[in-house]
Amino acid sequence: MLARYKMYRFSRPADDPLPDGIRKDTRWKTKHCLAPPRPLVETYLSDISDAAWAHFEVAYLELLEQRYADDPGPFEKLAAMAMEKDLFIGCSCPTQKNPNPMHCHTVPALRFLSSKFPDIEIQLPRP
């Protein structure tokens, strides 16, 4: 199973325990294959709107397609891990600035992975 989880900068709230499984940080600060580029994130965060999200999502999915075409290995490794054990990709969203969990890069990332690896169970966040 493949899903997302919320990462916290400070202490994790008691009512939001860490998920049981493998956790991967996929925020822009990492070198993960699912990490969005900082400029794309900053552009979206400068204008939190549906139009800005639509632009982010298209650009981000194009980037994932290019990364996959250039080197499918990291994506295949994620898929293999998700087949063996529950795998969670992490981000700090939702945040005060971006309160909608559906407007997090992890959502199109999960959809992208589902399209490439249809045998993996994907759990999207609830809006």
Structural description of this entry:
The protein has a 3-stranded parallel β-sheet, with helices on one face. The protein has helices spanning 38-45, 50-70, 73-84, 106-116; strands spanning 2-6, 22-25, 87-91. The longest helix has 21 residues, at 50-70. The protein has one domain (2-10, 18-116). It is α/β, with parallel strands linked by helices and 127 residues long. The protein is globular, with a radius of gyration of 14 Å.
Quick recap:
By secondary structure, this protein is α/β, with parallel strands linked by helices. It contains 4 helices and 3 strands; from the N terminus they run ββαααβα. It is 41% helix and 11% strand.
Helix-strand category: alpha/beta
Spatial gap, N to C terminus: 19 Å
Q: Any idea how many domains?
A: 1
What fraction, in percent, of the residue positions are helical?
A: 40-55%
Helix tally equals: 4
Low-confidence stretches: none
Number of strands: 3
Which sheet architecture does the biggest sheet show?
3 strands, parallel
Outline: globular
**What integer value in Å does the Rg equal?**
14 Å
Strand content: 5-15%
Mean pLDDT equals 95
Q: Give the SSE order as H and E letters.
A: EEHHHEH
Report strand order across the widest sheet: 1-3-2
